[in-house]
Amino acid sequence: MQKYVYFFGGGKAEGKGDMKDILGGKGAGLAEMTNATLPVPPGFTISTEVCRIFTDNKGVLGKDIDTQVNEALSKLEALTEQKLGSSDKPLLVSVRSGAKFSMPGMMDTILNLGLNDTTVKAMVARTNNERFAWDSYRRFIQMYGSVVLQVEKHAFDTIFDHNKEKIGAKLDTDIPTSGLQQIVKEYKAMVKEKTGSDFPDDPKQQLSGAINAVFGSWNNPRAIYYRKSNKISEALGTAVNVQAMVFGNMGETSGTGVGFTRNPSTGDKEFYGEFLMNAQGEDVVAGIRTPVPIKELQKILPECYSQLREITDRLEKHYRDMQDFEFTIQEGRLYMLQTRNGKRTGKAAVKVAADMVKEGLITSDDALMRVEPSQLDQLLHPILDPKANAKPIAHGLPASPGAVSGQIVFTADHAVEMAKSGKVVLVRKETAPDDIHGMDAAVGILTSRGGMTSHAAVVARGMGKCCIVGAESIAIDEHKKTLIVAGKVFHEGDWLTLEGGTGKIFEGQVATTEPDPSSGDFADFMAMADKTRRLKVRANADIPRDAQVARKFGAEGIGLCRTEHMFFAEDRLPHVVQMILANTEAERRTALAFLLPFQRSDFEGLFVAMGGLPTTIRLLDPPLHEFLPKREDLMVEVAVLKAKNGPAKEIAEKEKLLDRVEQLHEFNPMLGHRGCRLGITYPEISEMQCRAIFEAACKVQKSGTAVKPEIMIPLVGGPAELQAQKTIVDSVAQDVFKETGVTVEYSTGTMIELPRACVVADKIAEVGEFFSFGTNDLTQTTFGFSRDDAGKFIADYITRGILKVDPFQALDQEGVGALMKMAVEKGRSARPNIKLGICGEHGGEPSSVEFCHRIGLDYVSCSPYRVPIARLAAAQAVIADRSTDQRSRTV
Predict the structure, then answer these.
(1) How far apart are CA 749 and CA 764, in angstroms?
(2) Which of 410, 511, 726, 837 has the most neighbouring CB atoms within 10 Å?
(3) What residues have CB less than 8 Å from 16, skipping those under 6 apart?
(4) Would you give the DSSP letter of residue 572?
(5) Quick check: 46 and 211 in contact, CB under 8 A?
(6) What is the pLDDT of residue 579?
(7) Measured distance CA(862)–CA(263) in Å, rounded
(8) Tally of CB atoms within 10 A around 503
(9) Whole-angstrom Cα distance, residue 283 to residue 289?
(10) Are 527 and 554 in contact (CB under 8 A)?
(11) How many CB atoms are located within 10 Å of the residue 790 CB?
(12) DSSP state string for 185-205
């Protein structure tokens, strides 16, 4: 019989080696802690394979699994000397999910399972603590009712809050036993009203329902959303952990807490976390009560605190990573409930990795692989401008860094809606797992309740969102949609600014400044990446300011300057329109002569900013109609002018413009008169641009700054097109060199963005000195998808499994990638030293960067703010290669 259930307890756990795939992260951690003889309550883990069986069989586990669960339960009963449902020594258990990768708050937990009207009395007799027993019972009914019976949580909250208010209790712990008994009575009546059945009192039935519900929660909407956002495979499944209960709500020598071995927000090496006395685990993360910093435990229960420090230090050294742990103290005795590698911000990830290298815990390769490239984006978040001198209106706990301004929204759904047209800050008393889509849409999250390990804090850190929690001085009314701070009322749509690094809250929009990535932990970490990677990293930049930002983030050149972006400026566009409207070449050359000094000045700025680094400049690419008003708009303007008997001269000019727009109109402009086709039809455009490039290059070089211009011809489908344009490039270059008496080194190449160009790449390489893959258009032309319109159906393709990812976000390695690989091989066969790069948006996407490394490109180019991401991804590609080589040698 295949093994589906793994027992842990009594100092020994079943299973060998790395069991995360089988037991999930939580189950594997419990097994390892048990084997290390740490104080772990015994229990058993039902494997992730069962989750897949549960899904495939539509909720039926089967006889073999049921048998193994019953055997493990009997073993647990024997070890604890308790029995599920016993009227004398009842066993109570927790039922928790645990996937291979941490998914905080996305799936469901049930505590105190096994309680009913009989066993609650047995618990009173055993513990001599009536209030504790009934508090545990009301918690169990609420959790089980919500998770298993699908009764909305709000219905339980309404009953609880009503009774709390009626009694006059300030805190949950102030509710007396009689109040808890009344709540239990009302809970059960409400469950029967909502479901049509009594609350189940058979503990075996309770356990079966809980296991099925936790497996079922793998496919709840928030869990699916989280997996998609974090690229976690749907096929992994979750394990279910059934564990003997230990109780943190047995009085003032009991408590529960969560913590980290280092600060998950900053990465500082400090014992970090929170706890609550006389509470169960969900109280800490749910934000119902504001927890206490974990260091305060040293004053309350010093022996437990010392033991906890010793255990967690051991765990960090064992796993060689920052640990996220949960614990419960029952009447002065410490129990460990979880350890796993902790979620952390990008800033913390970089610092922890760099520090652990210095501490000798991990190698530099380990450190580089510990940080997700996308996490680096968090380090590039703006901070508040000190010159703004803004005064905060309130403070909270700094849960996740960054400084953001946004309009207030009070619900997750509204956050998604309003985020379509602007930036929003999601404001809640506390967030719940069902808010995941709104948290994703918001630029920042603010809660009035909860601590640094609350749901809002943990999820926001994982997302890299600015977050402030536990701002108790603000009053939130989610029904009236108001936020009151110091007597002032803010409504939905009003602006707030959050400074996540300090926990400060400001009215309105406050100016921000960009961080400096050239110093501190970030610079040290990136130096490790740069020492490891082979791929060069360039930036896509069109203006000097972007080039300067790119240099700041470590760019080693410009991989794409889109010259058309220079034409849209207000002082240039009229000359561009004049050039397009020209009827003769002479008229076009006149208009181009006006544009020449503008272009020359732009290129001078780029060359100076790059200081001798290679600068790839693409000649004009888009169809000419993009520079003209829209056809429909012009038709309306002409009709309105005629209806109002407008000036004849103005009408004539508009009609002339409309005629030219009609002439240029194309049914499929992305495959029309653009790219090198424009330069072939109107060679004078290419001549002007090349003259501007070479005049700027000669001037800058003459002033003492080296230049390395690379002229890129767009959209070629064969060598003849490239040769026609290269002839112009070379001719203009020689003319400028003679006129200026200065010679600069340059190269001419092409942008590979058509499938045909990949197929005949060997012939194109006989003419061109470099290839740069324009994967945006290569993806369009390979799939036959319009990038501008594909959004209407790509989501359906991904949902239905037709595509795994959006090919415009991550490179389609099977199709587009195969064409690139062909072009690389053919290009190098004709010109062994040809320079190869990529300048599409994929140049900053980690999996695409890894592919570019694998097929032997020389560089990737991406937007300036993604340069650090590409640098790290390139280093990780080298390390992955080493690992593959080592495995091959071992085999």
Answers:
(1) 9
(2) 837
(3) none
(4) T
(5) yes
(6) 86
(7) 32
(8) 20
(9) 7
(10) no
(11) 18
(12) HHHHHHHHHHHSSPPP--HHH
Q: Going by C-beta distance under 8 Å and a sequence separation of 6 or more, which residues neighbour residue 300?
A: 255, 277
Please provide the distance, in angstroms rounded to a whole number, between the alpha carbons at the two ends of the chain.
30
Cα–Cα nearest to 575, from 467, 687, 411, 688: 688
Query: How far is the C-alpha of 799 from the C-alpha of 794, rounded, in Å?
Result: 9
Could you give the CA distance from residue 773 to residue 758 in angstroms, rounded to a whole number? Answer: 10
Cα(604)–Cα(463) distance, integer angstroms: 40
C-alpha 456/C-alpha 28 separation (Å) is 26
Amino acid identity of residue 711, one-letter, is I
Please answer whether residues 678 and 685 qualify as being in contact, where contact means their C-beta atoms are separated by less than 8 angstroms: yes
Q: pLDDT tens digit string along 507-519?
A: 999 998 877 777 7
In 359-449, where does DSSP find H-type helix? Answer: 364-370, 376-379, 412-418, 436-441
Sheet of strand 12-13: strand arrangement: 12-13, 5-9, 43-46, 238-244, 93-99, 109-113
3-state secondary structure of 510: coil
* Separation of CA 722 from chain center: 40
The tokens describing 537, both together, are: 């990293």
What is the percentage of the chain residues whose pLDDT exceeds 90?
Answer: 63
CA–CA gap between residue 27 and residue 863 (Å, rounded): 41
Query: Residue for token digits 């808890």?
Result: 180
Cβ 101 vs Cβ 236: under 8 Å: yes
Q: Give the C-alpha separation, 663 to 666, whole Å.
A: 8
Type of residue at 679: G
DSSP H helices, 95-243, are 119-127, 130-147, 153-167, 177-195, 203-216, 221-230
- Who contacts 45 (Cβ-Cβ below 8 Å, separation ≥6)? 5, 6, 8, 23, 24, 27, 30, 31, 98, 239, 240, 241, 242
User: Can you read off the two tokens belonging to residue 86?
Assistant: 């016993």
Residue with tokens 């062994």: 832
Residue pair 107/220 in contact (Cβ under 8 Å)? The answer is yes
Is residue 85 within 8 Å of residue 119, measured between CB atoms?
A: yes
Beta bridge mates, 323: 341
Positions marked active-site: 455, 839
Under 8 Å between Cβ of 95 and 214: yes
Q: How far is 85 from 93, CA to CA, in rounded Å? A: 11
Residue 426's CB: how many other CB atoms inside 10 A?
31
Q: Torsion angle of alpha carbons 383, 389, 390, 395, nearest 10°?
A: 70
DSSP secondary-structure letter at 755? H
* Amino acid identity at 323: Q
Q: What is each CA distance from 299 to 152, 292, 296, 494, in whole angstroms?
A: 40, 12, 6, 43
- What does pTM read for this prediction? 0.75
> CA-to-CA distance for 453 and 285, rounded, in angstroms?
6
Instruction: State how far the Cα of 623 lies from the Cα of 618, in Å rounded to an integer.
Output: 14
Distance CA 323, CA 337 (A): 13
Residues 94 and 144: beta-carbon distance below 8 Å: no
| Token pair 């002018």: residue | 641
pLDDT, averaged in runs of 10, over the chain (891 residues): 93 88 92 93 96 90 93 96 94 92 74 95 92 94 93 92 91 90 96 95 95 90 80 88 91 91 92 89 64 93 96 94 93 92 87 94 95 81 78 88 91 92 93 82 91 77 82 89 91 93 90 80 93 96 88 94 81 83 87 92 94 95 77 80 84 81 73 89 94 97 96 96 97 97 97 97 98 94 85 82 89 97 98 95 92 97 89 96 67 46
